[in-house]
Design a protein that fits this description.
The complex is a heterodimer of chains A (about 325) and B (about 290).
Chain A (H helix, E strand, L loop, with lengths): L6 H19 L6 E10 L2 E11 L4 E5 L6 H8 L7 E6 L2 E2 L9 E4 L11 H12 L5 H10 L15 H14 L4 E5 L7 H16 L3 E5 L3 H7 L2 E6 L2 E7 H5 L2 E8 L3 H10 L2 E4 L2 E5 L8 H11 L3 E9 L2 H20 L1
Parallel strand pairs in A: 3-8, 3-9, 6-7, 7-8
Antiparallel strand pairs in A: 1-2, 1-4, 4-5, 9-10, 11-13, 11-14, 12-13
Helix pairs in contact in A: 3-4, 3-5, 4-5, 9-10
Chain B lengths: L2 H18 L2 H28 L5 H41 L1 H6 L5 H35 L6 H25 L2 H28 L2 H13 L2 H12 L4 H5 L3 H4 L10 H24 L3
Helix pairs in contact in B: 1-5, 2-3, 2-5, 3-5, 3-6, 3-7, 5-6, 5-12, 6-7, 6-9, 6-12, 7-8
Classes of the chains: A alpha/beta (about 325), B mainly alpha (about 290).
């Protein structure tokens, strides 16, 4: 600056530098942060008080039955749908500012691209709109990554659904995103394509890119996600790391002569379900390896005859169904 | 991404869509057909007046009327073309999901809408100006008639197209692609008929009937701009030939040039309707 600075201006400058230094020292803001999202369509509540967070380089799975509000939540995060209430920050910026989406890649559930453009032209359009400088070679590499290198010059109108979804994945990845939102990314893909998507998602994680993955395929989520949020009827029914959600191990026991005291002992361990002579007991998450021998010893001393003891592990699918059924039962009771 | 860059990118994309979807080709074929037909008609007219069946004044009057008639054909093609282009390109994209991936980019929705509008206006106006100019040249070659103020006339035709297109854009942010095209063209036809009815009222000296035209020209300025364009295409001597207020009753002649106030109103109208379209599109859930 050519003008001599006044003492106050110097003071302001120093304060600004100190603030910048302080901010630079902070850990980066989460890739996605949203709080209290709510959306109604007419009288139908689509999303009710949803809050979630996706850390940098983290893969978050969004699970839930049809109509649970997963796609609505995703569209609100990207400002494609205006929330009735709630707040969204993308990569540390309020989502109401379009610039917040500069480093966000998105593959919509309804993937359609300009049918009169070629695959390479669609990518070039998205690069231009993103305002990021991506070389032609990088764009070709991106098409290659999704297996469309030899169809780059073909019109999208002639693509199969699976190829359009692959193109959508390339569009989501092309502008060097820090956050990728994939809404049902494998709905039109064959098993080979699904494996490709899984590899791509894991490669993104390795590069430190955050991924928000909405998928019906529980196995897919279980394999790649660090954390899972389960939505049911527009609300967060459960959330946590896979270890937290699946840490619950269970034990199957074949028992006869179960006295009321033995039954009480079973229920004291965890949720017990009876099917004839077989009892399934959920083991506490903080078990250090003593729960099973202690339980068996106590059951025997209480007069029960133990025929078989089988360890079991709850799958994400069972956990998901359990959570959804509990929700339905709670609603039914509430209704009565 | 700066707003200007977004607007230009989307406008260029819209023009590319028009050419790739063969809209350009269809329009070119229609235009050539209309030009050829009119060339034949005008050459017949020249042959008739050459044989002194018509006085020079009558010949100029007939040329003026025919020129306006053909120009009306062009403006109708432009109206239909752009109205049915605006629907699919905007409402169709939001319906099919193409808009989802595009609008998730760091761009403002209003910039996207402005880009679409600009592309459509460039396309529609470009068509009427080029086709209109070609028609004027055909008339000059065949009937030796050159309109008094072709530049103003063509600019007003372009403005008419832009006005209708803005309405079509507003409609396509609110209703389905098919309905938006139908309603826009329907309103265009209705104001034209109302303008003709108003003209008849004027020539009969019936103020309440004349008001029909005046009111419709305020509500949708396409017919008002069209009247101005006709006035600039036709020979000034037609009044002497036709005689006074009878001109008003004739649908393909115009009595008076446009006032600056009306032009200003048309500009305000376009800005207002665009503003409404933007307000509706920005709030739309995709």
């Amino acid at each position: 600056m050519s003008v001599a600075q006044t003492p106050t201006a110097v003071g302001d400058d120093a304060a600004r530098r100190a603030a910048a230094h302080l901010v630079a020292g902070l850990p980066p803001a989460p890739a996605v942060w949203c709080s209290g999202l709510r959306k109604r369509y007419g009288r139908q509540v689509a999303v009710e008080d949803v809050s979630l967070e996706v850390g940098r380089g983290e893969i978050l799975g969004l699970l839930g039955p049809n109509g649970a509000g997963k796609t609505s939540v995703i569209k609100m995060l990207l400002s494609l749908v205006q929330p009735d209430a709630g707040e969204v920050l993308l990569l540390g910026r309020p989502a109401t500012d379009p610039a917040a989406r500069a480093a966000v890649g998105y593959l919509p559930e309804l993937f359609r691209y300009q049918p009169w453009l070629s695959a390479a032209e669609v990518l070039a359009l998205h690069v231009r709109l993103s305002g990021i400088d991506v070389t032609a070679q990088e764009q070709r590499d991106c098409l290659d990554l999704v297996g469309l290198a030899d169809r780059a010059k073909d019109r999208v109108g002639g693509f199969s659904k699976g190829m359009q979804q692959r193109l959508g994945l390339a569009v989501a990845l092309v502008a060097r995103p820090e956050l990728v939102v994939l809404d049902e990314p494998t709905s039109a893909l064959d098993p080979l394509g699904r494996a490709d998507v899984r590899d791509i998602v894991l490669a993104l994680k390795a590069q430190g890119v955050a991924v928000l993955l909405n998928s019906h395929l529980i196995g897919e989520v279980e394999r790649v996600c660090d954390r899972v949020v389960i939505l049911d009827r527009g609300r967060v029914a459960a959330s946590g790391t896979l270890a937290e959600l699946l840490g619950l191990r269970e034990l199957r026991l074949h028992l006869t002569d179960v006295s009321p005291e033995a039954q009480a002992r079973l229920e004291a361990t965890g949720k017990a379900e009876r099917e004839g002579d077989w009892v399934t007991v959920a083991l506490p998450a903080d078990d250090v390896g003593t729960a099973v021998p202690d339980l068996v010893a106590d059951l025997v001393s209480l007069g029960a005859r133990v025929h078989a003891v089988e360890p079991g592990r709850i799958t994400l699918e069972e956990r998901l169904l359990g959570i959804l059924r509990e929700g339905a039962e709670a609603r039914a009771e509430g209704g009565q | 991404m700066t707003t200007a860059r977004t607007v230009l990118t989307i406008a260029a994309l819209t023009l590319r869509e028009a050419s790739r979807r063969r809209v350009l080709l269809a329009l070119a074929v229609l235009t050539l057909l209309l030009l050829a037909l009119s060339a034949w008609g005008f050459s017949r007219l020249a042959a008739e007046s050459g044989g002194s069946a018509l006085t020079s004044g009558e010949a100029r009057l007939t040329a003026s009327i025919l020129l306006n008639l053909v120009m009306f054909g062009f403006s109708l093609i432009a109206a239909l073309g752009t109205a049915f282009l605006a629907g699919p390109t905007l409402a169709g994209e939001t319906e099919s999901g193409i808009a989802l991936a595009v609008l998730a980019r760091p761009i403002r929705r209003s910039a996207f809408l402005l880009g679409k509008w600009l592309g459509l206006v460039t396309f529609g106006s470009g068509f009427v100006v080029l086709a209109g100019l070609a028609q004027c040249l055909v008339v000059r070659a065949t009937a030796d008639y050159w309109p008094p103020d072709p530049a103003t006339a063509l600019a007003l035709l372009a403005a008419q197209t832009a006005a209708l297109l803005t309405l079509a854009v507003l409609l396509s942010t609110a209703i389905s692609p098919m309905a938006s095209g139908v309603v826009a063209v329907g309103l265009f036809g209705t104001t034209w008929v109302a303008g003709v009815v108003g003209g008849v009222g004027e020539s009969l000296g019936n103020d309440s009937v004349a008001r029909v035209g005046a009111v419709s020209r305020m509500l949708l300025p396409t017919d008002g701009l069209w009247q101005g364009a006709m006035h600039a295409f036709q020979d000034p001597s037609v009044f002497a030939t036709f005689g006074g207020s009878d001109v008003a009753a004739f649908p393909f002649l115009s009595e008076a040039p446009l006032t600056a106030t009306y032009l200003a109103w048309a500009a305000v109208w376009v800005a207002m309707v665009w503003g409404l379209a933007a307000a509706s599109f920005v709030r739309k859930d995709l």
